[in-house]
Amino acid sequence: xxxxxxxxxxxxxxxxxxxxxxxxxxxxxxxxxxxxxxxxxxxxxxxxxxxxxxxxxxxxxxxxxxxxxxxxxxxxxxxxxxxxxxxxxxxxxxxxxxxxxxxxxxxxxxxxxxxxxxxxxxxxxxxxxxxxxxxxxxxxxxxxxxxxxxxxxxxxxxxxxxxxxxxxxxxxxxxxxxxxxxxxxxxxxxxxxxxxxxxxxxxxxxxxxxxxxxxxxxxxxxxxxxxxxxxxxxxxxxxxxxxxxxxxxxxxxxxxxxxxxxxxxxxxxxxxxxxxxxxxxxxxxxxxxxxxxxxxxxxxxxxxxxxxxxxxxxxxxxxxxxxxxxxxxxxxxxxxxxxxxxxxxxxxxxxxxxxxxxxxxxxxxxxxx
Length: 369
Description:
alpha+beta; 2 domains; 5-stranded antiparallel beta sheet; 5-stranded mixed beta sheet
């Protein structure tokens, strides 16, 4: 539109607009007046050197009666149409210079004059304003996108922190309800032993019996502490990898009684190591899913299937329990929200298929290298 207006107002045969990048190289070059056949034979567009390079930085228009006689003229390619008269202006705003707009060969062999300069300068100002508006809109869109990314990042971080706090609360309850009570019983048992020994005639058999009870309590507390530590971060996951950790997890769940849990692995072996964050997410999702099965599903059996499929790792945890109404479940309950958030943190996805009296299936898919 600008080129059409410039040619029409000044009566020029040729018009062109060159826009420069931040390194001073022409990134956009459009022209009018040269037919497509001739343009295709001219080769690459100008590089913005010589006269055009000076024009882009000029404070005033450059008007020439004979372009080819100017020492700044670098010559045309063999297929470039001959041009003689020339008028060029810088396309610039108060902020920056964007390039140049120029005309060549005024009709009827006439020369460009001051009125042509004024008209072309006005069009160049319009062009600069239009370019600046477009770039401002792009900057605003980029800023809006950056703000949205920050919002999502903040939301995800908030969810992660919430999940961490929920985990800390669970650990605190376990420490108080299980290990705390066990240690309290140990203290009580030791006091009874002390009282027995403090008698004038100590009952040695009673002391032995109570000592045995204390030993069992300590062993139980130690087992509880180890189980809690394993739940928090199984060392086998770091030392031996995901497959070994899952086998240990399935064995731990099976040792607690119903339901029985089977593990099937496809496309991976015990030596396969994945990115640490991927291994952690898969392990935690399986752990949470099995915890839900034990606590809520009333299932007799469950299965865990882990399979590598090209660039993805698919994990399915399925049980034959009574299921639940997923639509009526609040997001944080049963740890479902935490599983979804973990999957999203590694670019994965998690789906849950469940319903009353038909069990539950948790499907996790994460990308892997």
